[in-house]
Design a protein that fits this description.
single chain; 122 residues; alpha+beta; 6 strands
């Protein structure tokens, strides 16, 4: 399986945590939970000033990621250790892992005439 990198904007992936997050360096990426298999890693390989992070994952996972079939679950630690002097909403963070969560499909609505016919059959 080929390792195919996908680059996305930091703000898109990290959301509100973007301004508080330390530079991303070799952060592991998991599927659905951190107890599972590690899919690859994320880093800021485009340089210090590029506002982007690169996912280094298998080609099939990269295609799904690029088409929006995953949401992100972020695990992080506070970068300044156990210093509780600052409010937790303003403290710097360091990512410990990113989990890709598959989006749930939706069930197509049943047309009214079909639902009425199935109700008569019962």
């Amino acid at each position: 399986m080929a390792n195919n990198p996908v680059t996305m904007a930091r703000r898109y992936v990290l959301g509100e945590l973007n301004v508080r997050c330390e530079p991303v360096e070799n952060v592991p990426v998991y599927l659905d939970d951190t107890a599972g298999e590690m899919l690859g890693f994320v880093d800021e390989s485009l340089g210090k000033y590029a506002d982007a992070i690169t996912f280094h994952l298998a080609e099939d996972v990269c295609k799904k990621l690029a088409t929006g079939q995953f949401t992100y679950s972020l695990e992080y630690d506070f970068a300044d250790g156990n210093d509780t002097a600052a409010a937790s909403s303003k403290r710097r963070i360091k990512l410990s892992s990113i989990t890709l969560v598959s989006r749930k499909g939706y069930q197509k609505p049943i047309p009214r005439r079909v639902s009425a016919a199935s109700a008569d059959a019962v």
